[in-house]
Specification:
Strand order of the largest sheet: 1-3-2-7
Number of domains: 2
Number of helices: 6
Strand content: 15-25%
Radius of gyration: 29 Å
Structural class: alpha+beta
Helix content: 25-40%
Oligomer: single chain
Length: 290
C-alpha cells in the first residue's frame, strides 16, 4: 500500500519524492555482532516494509552540502618544528608499508638535526624550551614572554590537517492543503507513518531492550529523478507537524479537520560520501553526483 499526496498524484506525468523505510542494519558487516549489514551495491536496499510514501516535490528541494572536517595544527618556533618532525617520523614508521625504509628516513632526519648545519636549529630549539619551562613555572604565557623580551614572536608553523568527512543532513518541508475532510484524513495517515517508523519499538518489559527505529531511503522520481542529487540511507531525526500555520485565524472543515497541515522532516545520512560514491552516482546517470 502506498500513501500519496495529492491522493490523485500520477507518477507517470509529474515529479515526486518517495520515502521508503526498512529495518536498521549495519553499513558494513561486523564479525560477531549478530546484526546483518546492508548490501554495498549502488542504492541497494532490503525490501521496504510498510507502505511507501509518495509526495509532491516541494518548491525548494533541500540544499545538500558536502562538508569536510579540517583543523589547524600549530607547532610554534624551532622547538615546535622539531616536535612535528619527530612525530611525523614516528607515524611514518608505524603506518608505512615499508617499516625499514621509514626507520631509515627517521634516522636520516635525526642525523640532519645533529649535523653541523642543524646545530643552530637545535640550539634555538633548546633556548625556546628553556623559556617555555621558565614561563610555565611562573604561570605565564611563553609566547608573551618571548614577544616582550625579543620584540618578535615565534613562527606559528601552521598546518591544516584533514580529520575526515562529515555526515550530511537534509530537511523536507511540506504544506498540505486538503480539498476536503477525506483528504485531510489521508494526510494524517501519512504523518502517522513517519511518526510510527521513526520511533523505537517499545520494550516488552520494564528495563528491556528497545528496537532501533527504521532507516529511510529518499528518492526523487519523474523526469526530475536523475537531475536531483541521490541520498544515502538516512535516519529520520525529527518529525514536526503544525496546523493552520500562517492563517489569520483558526479554521477547520465542518468535522474539525484543519484546512492547512505543515510537515517538517529532518534526516541524517548513515554513511559518509566518498569520491567513489560520486563516481558510482555519475555512472548511474546522476551527473551531479551525490
Amino acid at each position: 500500500m502506498a500513501f500519496k499526496y495529492p491522493i490523485d498524484l500520477n507518477e507517470r506525468t509529474t515529479d515526486y519524492v518517495t520515502f521508503s523505510h526498512f529495518e536498521w542494519k549495519l553499513n558494513r558487516s561486523l564479525s560477531g555482532s549478530g546484526v546483518g549489514s546492508y548490501s554495498q551495491g549502488f542504492m541497494a536496499d532490503p525490501p521496504s516494509r510498510g507502505g511507501d510514501i509518495v509526495l509532491y516535490v516541494p518548491n525548494s528541494t533541500p540544499p545538500m552540502s558536502q562538508q569536510q572536517d579540517y583543523k589547524s595544527d600549530s607547532q610554534p618556533g624551532e622547538l615546535g618544528q622539531l616536535r612535528r618532525n619527530l612525530a611525523a617520523a614516528a607515524a611514518g614508521i608505524g603506518y608505512s608499508g615499508n617499516p625499514e625504509q621509514a626507520v631509515q628516513r627517521a634516522l636520516d632526519g635525526l642525523s640532519g638535526a645533529l649535523s653541523k648545519d642543524g646545530i643552530g636549529t637545535a640550539l634555538s630549539a633548546g633556548r625556546q624550551a628553556m623559556v617555555e619551562a621558565v614561563a610555565t613555572a611562573m604561570q605565564q604565557d611563553p609566547k608573551t614572554i618571548i614577544a616582550l623580551g625579543s620584540g618578535s614572536i615565534l613562527n606559528p608553523n601552521v598546518e591544516v590537517v584533514y580529520q575526515g568527512p562529515m555526515l550530511r543532513s537534509f530537511n523536507f518541508d511540506f504544506t498540505f492543503a486538503p480539498k476536503d475532510s477525506s483528504e485531510a484524513k489521508a494526510i494524517k495517515d501519512i504523518i502517522f507513518e513517519f511518526k510510527r517508523w521513526s520511533a523505537p519499538e517499545s520494550p516488552e518489559q520494564i528495563g528491556g531492550m528497545m528496537k532501533v527505529p527504521d532507516v529511510w531511503r529518499v528518492k526523487y522520481g519523474g523526469k526530475f529523478g536523475k537531475n536531483g542529487n541521490p541520498f544515502k540511507r538516512a535516519v529520520l531525526t525529527n518529525v514536526n507537524v503544525d496546523f493552520n500555520s500562517g492563517l489569520n485565524q483558526h479554521m477547520t472543515f465542518d468535522d474539525g479537520e484543519p484546512i492547512l497541515i505543515g510537515l517538517g522532516l529532518s534526516f541524517r545520512e548513515t554513511d559518509f560520501i566518498t569520491r567513489g560514491d560520486h563516481m558510482k552516482a555519475r555512472g548511474a546517470g546522476y551527473m551531479g553526483g551525490f
